[in-house]
Task: structure prediction
Amino acid sequence: MNKTLMIMKPDAVKRQDFAYILSRVKSAGFTVRQMRMLQLSDEKAKAFYEVHSERPFYNDLVKFMTSGPVVVVWLERENAVDAFRELIGATNPADAAVGTIRNDIAESLEANSTHGSDSDENAEKELNFFFG
Ligand code: ATP
Ligand code: MG
Result:
């Protein structure tokens, strides 16, 4: 089994889209191992997206990710990282394939509803970041 971190971002939480997202996750064969709702601090959001700190959208991204609570979810499945990124679709919902979560519910490139780890190594780091 492989692991990945999903985050239900503030836009998804504001819309209360938990049931929709978790039902898609279940249908795609993932197991939820741990799950928690929390409010990211400025410091924690900055650290989580540290890799993007030099990008022009960094400050807005941090502002968005701290604009309301998020739900962090530890998922397991075979080939979890790639399978989950396929399920959520492209970063920009305008480019996300029909049937993906982002195509279905995301609002914009910034408010794109879900995060998924992008490698096994980052999944490990990100799960450790939230679940210790
Ligand atoms: P995530 O890491 O949230 O799962 P991703 O891996 O698909 O998304 P990244 O390149 O890691 O995309 O970007 C992280 C987040 O930063 C994106 O989800 C998006 O909200 C935001 N972002 C990425 N590129 C841009 C951009 N050009 N303008 C504004 N926001 C952006
Ligand atoms: Mg990413």
Q: What stands out?
A: The chain has a mean pLDDT of 98. The radius of gyration is 14 Å.
